[in-house]
Design brief:
Length: 239
């Protein structure tokens, strides 16, 4: 049987890398993307990259910024050409910075543009690039939101971007009706990916692999089962 092809954005570390490790173990043929080549190629090598294009069945690693439409759409075309199909996408790339709308600390407004573009425009473009290919395979799109996209975080533009991902997933899910494409909104709570701000250092935390297990659960369901939302929190945390 042909092994399914899975594209993960933001795959070089954190939750994306944990999903890649679990998906590799589950038999997916992987396409891994991030902006920085080094860690991405290291992970691809760990997971079985065996040449400049990962061989016929190996791991493809590509530096693609999710805010770059030309690069994203070109990547999907390349995947279909080299692998013959695209079965699933985890639109996971995202960034987080602290903000205050009074300017009481946090990132300066000059940095807000990248936050919004990466977290909102990025998954929207990823969906637009991948959905025609996913329709051909009756595939699966997973969007990484956050529990910050379902609760209030004072002064947080990051939270607002994740509310946008919540809306995006619902809009895409509605448009996918009748296509056979499944859409999952993944909303993890605080996850220890190495960049938790000091103010939250003592809060309960998930491991990236805990979140990856939830993604593989959704991907592993039979075609008639549509896991539309997954909320996974560290125990003891209600936000
Ligand atoms: N950690 C948490 O507590 C938590 C909780 C809920 C939801 N989330 C969400 O989960 C996702 C992954 O978070 P994480 O904590 O694993 O993050 P992370 O460890 O910082 O990894 C982020 C990944 O995204 C890539 N990336 C960032 N900007 C990109 C861009 N413009 N284009 C392409 N790739 C880009 C990074 O590589 P490059 O920098 O090389 O591009 C990296 O591979 C994000 O959407 C985040 O909002 C995280």
């Amino acid at each position: 049987m042909t092994r399914p092809v899975l594209l993960i954005t933001g795959a070089s570390r954190g939750i994306g890398a944990a999903v890649a490790r679990r998906a590799a173990a589950a038999g997916y043929r992987l396409v891994l993307t991030a902006r920085t080549a080094g860690p991405l190629e290291q992970l691809a090598a760990e997971l079985g990259d065996d040449g400049d294009d990962g061989g016929a069945d190996g791991v493809l690693a590509r530096t693609v910024d999710v805010t770059d439409w030309t690069a994203l759409s070109g990547l999907v075309a390349e995947i279909e050409e080299r692998r013959g199909r695209l079965d699933a996408v985890v639109a996971n790339a995202g960034v987080s910075v602290l903000t205050s709308f009074f300017g009481d600390g946090g990132a300066p407004p000059e940095e807000w543009r990248d936050l919004v573009l990466t977290n909102v425009y990025g998954p929207a473009l990823t969906a637009r690039a991948a959905l025609p290919a996913l329709r051909r395979t009756r595939g699966h799109l997973v969007l990484t939101g956050s529990t910050a996209g379902r609760g209030i975080r004072s002064g947080s533009l990051y939270s607002a971007t994740k509310w946008a991902v919540t809306g995006l997933a619902q809009a895409i899910h509605a448009e996918c009706a009748g296509t056979g494409v499944r859409v999952t909104l993944l909303q993890p709570g605080l996850t220890d990916t190495g960049s938790i701000p000091p103010s939250r250092a003592n809060d309960p935390q998930l491991e990236p692999d805990d979140v990856a297990a939830a993604v593989l659960y959704a991907l592993g369901q039979p075609p008639h089962v549509d896991v539309t939302e997954i909320v996974v929190r560290p125990i003891g945390h209600h936000l």
